Amino acid sequence: MSTTDGVATVVIDNPPVNALGADLRRDLMTALRDAEADASVQVIVLAAAGRTWPAGADIREFGQPPRDPWLPEVCSAVAACPKPVIVAMHGNALGGGLELALAAHVRLADPGTRLGLPEVTLGILPGAGGTQRLPRLIGARAALGMMTSGLPIPAERALELGLIDAVTEGEARLAAQRLAAAHIAGEASLPSAAERPDHRMDASDWLAAVTEARKGLGVSRLPAPPRIIDCVEAALLLPEEEGFAYERTAFEELVSTPEAAALRHAFLAERRAARHPELAATKPREIAEIGVIGGGLMGSGIATACLAAGYRVTMIERDDQALTAGLARVATNRDRAVAKGQLSVADRETEWSRMSGATAMSALAGADLVIEAAFEDEGVKTAIFAELDGVVKPGAVLATNTSYLDVNRIAAATSRPGDVIGLHFFSPAQVMKLLEVVVAERTSPDVTATAFALAKRLGKVAVRAGVCDGFIGNRVLTAYRTATDFLLEDGASPYQIDRAMVGWGFPLGPYQVLDMAGLDISWARRTRLAEHRDPSERYVAIGDRLCKLGRLGQKAGRGYYLYAEGARTGTEDPEVLEVIAAERTAKGIEPRRITEAEIQRRALAAMANEGARILEEKIAARPSDIDLVMLTGYGFPRWRGGPMQMADQVGLLELRDTLRDYAREEETFWRPAALWDELIKNGRKFADLNAD
Ligand code: T1G
User: Fold this and answer.
1) Which atom, in ligand 1's list, is nearest to the CA of 94?
2) Pocket test for ligand 1, best of 25, 121, 231, 271 (most atoms within 8 A of CB)
3) Residue 465 pairs with which residues in a beta bridge?
4) For residue 402, how many other CB atoms are within 10 A of its CB?
5) Disulfide: which of 231, 537, 581, 692 matches 668 by Cβ 3.0-4.6 Å?
């Protein structure tokens, strides 16, 4: 703290995001007390060093024993301070950071500051006075909007709402110090609480906002949103201190829920995924020019993502007709972005000057990175890589978007396997967050670092995977589907299974997803692997039979469901049930009653067991990477945290024993991975393998 002419400036400095951890709270409380006690201090300015004003409480402290002073106490101390406290915000004023500002007397923000209460995305609510102070300041409707969406708002909008007093010209700290000095000199008056609108005066509008929010929420799967609304209602009905106590109770109730633990896990898993020892000291290669081989659904999506991220992009297609179609897909994707207001017409035009196409590989001689997105066939891909090897400059990175094939074998088709890596995008590639970075045996570390740097620039969540059939995501997905296919033969219907998994939190069930993706893709894979299949392993041929009947999914108008012309949602089809019944009869299987709970338990057990095998084979670096892949690429409900997090929540002993039970029916698939025993023996969980 430094004091000049009666203005004490307290600077918060706790990199990287000034999270309000216990040590910082203690120091803040001390600085406040000192400033209060110092007679020479007339106004206190609170600012932050580094890239941002506090972006919230320290998420890593949740679930730990609480340490004094609590953040609500610090906020109350600021609010009760007899000397005006002016906060100067910049960067991301989020969560507890914004609550600290709400307790202050005057709020200034740099242009470009984002302000929000994202606690709901962590399964909790603003627990340091936010649910009480924010609605009083900006009204219940706007406050509920901010807290139930968790989305930040720009400083300009915050000013409109009355959340802040000014968007400063230049640095907010300097503006705050000037305002404080002017106030002391009597040249400026600080806005006082009395002057601010108290929205509680309009109780009917407040209660209307609460009612609308409840109606809008409907039946919430997540415990936090309804509790936020309760707190805002309490802010009207209860005296301030009782409102704070009500909020505190609700916060403590939520912070220990499995949903909150899962959402915290997901937040930290995203930050952890980019941490790999080999990357720490490795400089990525410079990428400015990207070549994309293939203009189909994946190729055009990848080209779109790269163009939107500012790269120069060259699309390669086999002939002019295919090239025109590919470029048109990219153009359509960008026109959609304009239509959604994500891109201005002027920027759309400028951007297109960075997009080009050709039908000859030689056009990629100067490319820094080439991403191959051709037909999913090893022969086709190795031929492309062999040709690229003779064309692109030394030092260029060669990437394949294969979703299953052996990247080592593709790399071996070149004289520079160290420059080859897998970049497994998910469809639509310009939208889906996940990018599996598939590191082959000879991929050099700076190529891996380049892939992670590319992902950050594309706004993707990158997860490192080793080479195996299906890498992380498709391998876990295959296990999930194998378990549900067994249930089809044993007595369940695809419709019952889809309802059970949607009821569990997935946006779609496994058979709805199969119909959307096309049954022929996984059929081709099963056919490719048939010669290597362990004859003792149970094999369900229902999918094969449907394919032979031409039931390839939505694109064929029928798969597991029947689709009216152009429809994306299908209807149940008795013909499919007949096919399944015939398979049972052929195998002499007497169908049995299967419950929703059993379907969900087997799905989870299969995914977690495959996850354990993936960890044993070091295909994934840690369990949270597997969770992240399933959350960001396969629709696994974020508030359940992923299969490995769920396995920890259910309990390894219980789930391992469940696997043992299932293994009595079918040993090869259900045999628990050895990792379960090892962890159980040492009293450990999968989470213990997520070293930060
Ligand atoms: N606590 C602890 N660490 C945090 C953190 C936080 N709140 N926010 C970020 N980090 C770490 C992160 O793990 C990473 O670490 C580094 O900072 C950079 O983050 C009482 C209870 C601010 C928009 O939900 O949204 O307040 O990997 O890679 O892309 O009501 O971080 O370098 O070791 O994400 O520039 C509410 C969470 C908390 C905001 C910056 N606040 N953070 O994004 O960097 S709950 C939030 C973010 C709360 C109160 C309640 C983003 C960001 P490492 P990064 P970024």
Assistant:
1) 41
2) 271
3) 438
4) 21
5) 537
